[in-house]
Amino acid sequence: MAKLYESGENYLETILVLHNQGKNVRSVDIATEMEFSKPSVSRAVGILKNGGFIEVDPSDGFITLTPAGREVAERIYERHRVLTDWLVGIGVDEKTAMEDACKLEHDISVESFEKLKQHLREKHQQNV
């Protein structure tokens, strides 16, 4: 499996989100969603395909996540959701929280993220 960088993780997360919205995803959909040029997306799609993270249907161009790609996308998306909710919960406005979560989701360690989730669960249980 190829090494995946932050930009690749963002592409996989975007593909997952679009799929979760019930869309058949093509490169143009990713370009629109991420506000990137079509050539940039085309290059990234090729890298992700060669890395074993996505498959591209040769007949219609639909992009699907491989099991490895789905695993990465779900991990990043969970981090994004949890971090956004946490930041909003401590008073950060939603737009800033989403932007900051996007930065943090790639760099936070597994240990720190798991401890944050544990802390949030415990806090939630105390408030119920």
From TrEMBL:
Q: Does the keyword DNA-binding apply?
A: yes
Specify the superkingdom: Bacteria
Please state the span of the N-terminal signal peptide per the UniProt entry.
none
Q: Which UniProt keywords apply?
A: DNA-binding, Transcription, Transcription regulation
Pfam families the UniProt entry points to: Fe_dep_repr_C, Fe_dep_repress
SMART domains named among the record's database cross-references:
HTH_DTXR
The protein's matches in InterPro entries, at most eight in alphabetical order, are given as:
DtxR_MntR_Metal-Reg, Fe_dep_repressor, Fe_dep_repressor_sf, HTH_DTXR, Iron_dep_repressor, WH-like_DNA-bd_sf, WH_DNA-bd_sf
User: Could you tell me one molecular function GO term of this UniProt entry?
Assistant: DNA binding
| Listed PROSITE patterns | HTH_DTXR
- Domain HTH dtxR-type intervals: 4-66
Gene3D superfamilies, per the entry: Iron dependent repressor, metal binding and dimerisation domain, Winged helix-like DNA-binding domain superfamily/Winged helix DNA-binding domain
* Coiled coil spans: none
Q: Which family does it belong to?
A: Belongs to the DtxR/MntR family.
Name of the molecule in the record? Mn-dependent transcriptional regulator
Annotated source species = Ruminococcus champanellensis (strain DSM 18848 / JCM 17042 / KCTC 15320 / 18P13)
**Source organism lineage?**
Bacteria, Bacillati, Bacillota, Clostridia, Eubacteriales
